[in-house]
């Protein structure tokens, strides 16, 4: 989340306003990951929990205005260590119940050992 906070700071320095108002993160609990694997009929392995489920780590970015959401997304696209894997635009295409949001699945390169013991790997964020 540091890189995204830095993105907000850089934006504030250039535009004298925040790109977003709040940034929260969470790591799914072991029990929650187990339930998700079972729901998707995946084996109960670290690989399934961390690679096949795409929400082991989640962040929420809250913007004041709808236009800020798209500015934020464009800024995320410019980050060299982040790749957008999938997007769901519930702002343009609101759900029937009126729910409006923008969901991204991102891949981010980090320098840590992953579940396979690989030094550099991608983790996914929604």
UniProtKB/TrEMBL annotation:
SMART domains: RelA_SpoT (SM00954). Pfam families: RelA_SpoT (PF04607). Pathway: Purine metabolism; ppGpp biosynthesis; ppGpp from GTP: step 1/2. Residues 25-117 form the RelA/SpoT domain. Coiled coil: none annotated. This is GTP pyrophosphokinase family protein.
